[in-house]
Amino acid sequence: xxxxxxxxNCNTVKKALDxxxxxxxxxxxxxxxKEPATEAQLLKWEKELGWESLVNKKGTTWRKPIIP
Length: 68
Hints:
By secondary structure, the protein is α+β, with helices and mostly antiparallel strands. The chain has one domain (2-63): Glutaredoxin (3-Layer(aba) Sandwich). It has helices at residues 11-22, 39-49, 60-63, and strands at residues 2-6, 27-31. The protein has a two-stranded parallel ribbon with strand order 1-2. It starts with a strand and ends in a 5-residue tail after the last helix. 0% of the residues are buried.
C-alpha cells in the first residue's frame, strides 16, 4: 500500500489525496502534525533522495527571514 506523508491542511497534499481517491488508489496517510517522522525515517529518506528533497523551500516557513 502507498504511504503518503504530509500535513492534512496543505493544499498540495489535499490535491494529491483527492487525486488518489478519484483514481481509487489505496493509500495510508501519515499526518506530520499528529505523528512526526522518526529520525530513522528521515535518515533513510535523506540517503535515498538527498536532504533538499525533504524540505519544502517554497513554503512560508522556509522563506521567512530569521530575525535574531
